[in-house]
Structure formats: structure tokens, C-alpha cells
Amino acid sequence: MSERTSNRIFDIVNITFVALFVLFCLAPFLHVIAVSLSSNRAITSGEVTIFPIELNWNAYINVFSNNAMIRSLVFTVILTFATTVLCMLFTVAAAYPLTKRKLKGRKFFMYLIVITMFFSGGIIPEYLLIRDLHLINSVWSLILPGLVSPFNLIILISFFNNIPASLEESAEIDGSSHLRTLMSIILPLSMPVMATLALFYAVGRWNGFQDSLMYINNPDLYPLQLKLFQMVQNNMVSELTQMEGANRTPLTPESLKAATVIFATVPILAVYPWLQKYFVSGVMLGAVKG
Amino acid sequence: MSKATYFRRYWQLYALLSLPIIYFLIFRYGPMYGVQIAFKDFNLFQGIGGSEWIGFDAFREVFGMREFYTTLRNTFMLNFLDLLVSFPAPIILAIMLFEIRSVWFKKISQTILYIPHFISWVIIGGIVYQLFGNQSGMVNGVLESLGLTPIPFLTEKNPWLITYLFTGVWQSAGWGTILYLAALTGVNRELFEAAEVDGATRLKKIRYITLPSIKPTIVTLLILNLGKMVSIGFDRPYIIGNTAVREYSDVLSTFVYRVGLESGQYTLATVVGLFQAVVGLVFIFGSNYISKKVTGDGIL
């Protein structure tokens, strides 16, 4: 076998494997999309694989005409946006001073922050703290506990440290205050890493579930994930009871659940491609230092 | 520099820093203060300060619970099996991606492969249910139409375990390639060219150049992963798990949630949480120490 043919065989096998893996990542989404667009009859008879059968938009019409669902979506969008903005403000506010080597107490503050990456009080003391602060059933219980991620903070600090010091010095000689230097020199140069961290915070909040399970019992304040969890869980329960012989029909139609899954996924898929080129470098910085 | 000039020069920085520091003191150190209820007969009405000290009584009670050992075993078991299955996947995938010459195909593949990392476990749970449910799951539908017996993916222990591990690979394999691919871009291209001149095949190049050059990354990540053996996230086992498979799916984090927040036994749950935090700390520092010894590279 010549070298060229063996090379070609290698390429074909390799590309096939990667393509299969890509399909493996994609197929579950395709199936859920197909279910969300198929008729209930086709779903219950198990005909749906990755193409919709008896195409219809009923599930989406249902979701979009469900007030509670729309409210939950709007609430989650606002919550995610507000959380991301606040998290970025706090992370920048911590990162910038900590890059100043002459700042007294800098090491102490660094230790104070890094320790929390390795040790935490655990969820029970956290719950009791939120309770004592009267934040149960308050939006703030979903925002405040995660304001600064030490991991993201370290990424930002190392990025700031890589900005040439001469830029800042010349601004200072011109009489710029620290705040102005930060706003007009450092931040504009840091947009890629800022975008990455904002993505991480936003995805974390959008996907966050355990805190809402613990702190929120008011259905008006259910984030989308908690709502979705309850839909899926209800069905799990009915399925389990069916296994034990009770003959009940599932509480929620499958297509409705599938539509909700898609509904909760689309916003991430919408922002993600725009930020992809940035986050790879963000992960690298984090992996070296974090 | 006098104190006054120092302050005039730096007050803005301290003002900026004060907000995050207050955050850390309240929301990160506050719960650490609360850890003391592990040693107290905690009573909601008397609060953390007012409850009575009981020493290690709650620890004795926890260490006498059979459930505690089941959850501890499950935590190790799920983490260990996960490592076995999920750890090699990104290495293989990264090598395959690295060998792809078509730039557009590589880019599209990577974009899609990263996506599952950004999907919440709640959504993955919904997808898993749609695919593997007993009644309405697609996979069982296909099996049935082929005349095969359906598999209780979610309601029997061993099939559940495979479903659990599978979702882990699905969620993390693509994302895990980032670090390996970055290590590979640092490899000197001349090595590959020299090997080609010597007549090395593609497989030989992978074996003698590609793999050795990511070996340090592999070893470091492996050791650090071993350091996370007792820490397990809450969402995945809680959402993928259910009462039918609790014997396998109940882990330390879900146990803490159940005992603490569902049954209100705050002291016992705090003890379990504290146990997990302390053992976790030992593991992390241990693995970091080993990592430094072996590879000269750690995280700390």
C-alpha cells in the first residue's frame, strides 16, 4: 500500500469518527426538536426519531400562550441580564485593584478570596444565612450568593496583568485617576476576556437550578430551569408509578415538554457562536492559574 | 510616601475593592461561621449563636448511619467510573481533531462539540427522559420496533449507571478537548516534518510525537481529577437520579440536601457537608502535591 493511499484511508476513518461524534452530540437535540414538532399520536406510537412526523406547531403555540411560562421566561431573561451585569461590576471592582503591586494588603485580600475556592461552609449554612438575611423567596437569593466567582476573578486579574504597564503609567503622568484609567484604558483593551466572563456568568445563571430549588417556593419567581425540572419530574414520577402497575396517562404531553426544553436552550445557542472565539483563550488562562 | 499621599493616591482602589470584599465576607465567610452548627444541637428558634454545644455527638450519629456509607460509596463509585469513561474521551477526540486538515470541518465540529457543555443538567435531564424513558423514550421505541425487549434505562441500577456515565461523556468530551488542543498547537511543527522525512506513518506520528507531547497535560489533569473524588455536583445525580435507583444515585451532595432541607435535620446535614469539605480539601492538596512531584506542575 502506497503512502498516499494509507494517508487517505487514515483521513477518511478519522473524519468519519469525528463526524459520528459530532452527530452523537447533535442527535439528542434533533430528536427533541422533532418531538416538539410532531403530533401526539406519532409520539406515543414511538415513530419519531430525528425528523418531525405530522408536523405541527401546537406545542409551541401552547407554550407561548401559557402565561406562567412566558412570565418565567421573561423573568429568567431579566434575572440573567441583571446578574451578569452585577457580577461583572463586582469582578472588575475586585480585579483591578488587585493588579496593583503597591496596594497595601493586596496579598491578604488575595488569600481571603482564594481560600474560598477550596473551602466553603456547605449548603446548609448557606441556606441558613440566606434565611437569616430574609432573602428566601426574594430575587436577591439568586443573585447575591454568586456575585464573584474566584475562578473568573483570577482569569481577569491575569488578563489585566498582561496589559503593558507603560500604558497605565503614561495615563497616570497625564493626571488620570485610577478609575479613569480603568474605564478608558484597561476595560476597552479587555473586551474579549470581559465577553468570555460575561458568557460564563450568564450561562451559570441561566442554567442555575439548585439555588432556586432551595430558596424559591413562590411560583411567580420560578426560573425556567426550575419550571422545566418540575415538568420533567412530574413525568418521571408518573412513569415510575406506571412501572409499578398503576395505569395513568402522563400528566404533560411529551411535545410540550420537548418544546420547553428547546425554549430553554435556544437563548444560549443564540449567544454562544458569537463568543466562541473568545472563550477558548479564557479557558486557557483559567487552566494555567485556576 | 506619607500616609496622606498614599491614601490620596489609592483611595479609589480601596473603594472599588471594598464592595467585593464585603461580598466575600458575608456570602463566603458567613457560611463558614455557620459551620459551627455541626457541633451544636441546632435549633431554628435559638439561632446559630444560641444553640447548645454538643461536641462530636452529631458526627457519631452520622458515622453510625448506613445511608452515609452508601452515599459515600456512590460518590466514589460514580466519580471513579466517570473518570474511567469520561477522561480518555477528550484525549482521543483532541488527537482526531488535530489530525483533521480541513479547516472549516474542524471549526464546525468544534463549535458543535462544545455546545453540550453549556446545557444545564435540567435540560439534559429532559433530553435523557425523552430518549431513554421506559414508556415514551425514543431508544426503547426503536428497540421495540426491532422486536427487542426495552431496557429500563432510568429505573434499574446497572442500566441507569450506564445512562449516567453516557450523559457525562456527552456533556464534557468536546469541551475537554480545548486544553489538549492548546497543548498540541505548542508542539514544534518541525518534529512532524522530520518524522515525515524519516517515513513515519500517521499512526506512528501520533504514537511518538502527538501523545508524548500532551502527556504532561494528561498526567496533570488525571491527578487533579483524582483530587475531586469526593466532591460531586448536585445537579447531575439529583436530576438524572430517581427513587427507583437511589441505591446508586444517592451521593453526598444529594444526601445533604435531603437530610438538611427536606427533613430539616440541619445539624446532621452540616456534619456531612463539613466531612465532604474537609476530605475534599485533603484530596485536593494531596493530588496537587503529587502532581507537583510527578510533573512539576500543579494548580496551587
Automatic annotation (TrEMBL), chain A:
GO biological process entries: transmembrane transport
Tree of life domain: Bacteria
GO cellular component: plasma membrane
Domain ABC transmembrane type-1 per the UniProt entry, residue ranges: 73-273
UniProt main location, coarse: membrane
Keywords annotated in UniProt: Cell membrane, Membrane, Transmembrane, Transmembrane helix, Transport
Subcellular location: Cell membrane
Transmembrane annotation, as ranges: 12-34, 73-96, 108-130, 142-160, 181-203, 256-275
Membrane among keywords: yes
Alphabetized InterPro entries for the sequence: MetI-like, MetI-like_sf
Annotated Pfam families: BPD_transp_1
Membrane topology: Multi-pass membrane protein
Entry's family note: Belongs to the binding-protein-dependent transport system permease family.
Name this protein carries in UniProt: ABC transporter permease
From TrEMBL, chain B:
Keywords, ordered alphabetically: ATP-binding, Cell membrane, Membrane, Nucleotide-binding, Transmembrane, Transmembrane helix, Transport
Pfam families xref list: BPD_transp_1
Keyword Transport in annotation: yes
Transmembrane residue ranges: 12-30, 76-100, 112-132, 161-187, 208-227, 266-285
GO molecular function: ATP binding
Membrane topology recorded in Swiss-Prot or TrEMBL: Multi-pass membrane protein
SUPFAM superfamilies: MetI-like (SSF161098)
InterPro entries the UniProt entry points to: MetI-like, MetI-like_sf, UgpAE/MalFG_permease
ABC transmembrane type-1 domain location: 72-287
Domain of life: Bacteria
Location in the cell: Cell membrane
Family recorded in the similarity comment: Belongs to the binding-protein-dependent transport system permease family.
Name listed for the protein in its UniProt record: Polysaccharide ABC transporter ATP-binding protein
Organism expressing this protein natively: Paenibacillus odorifer
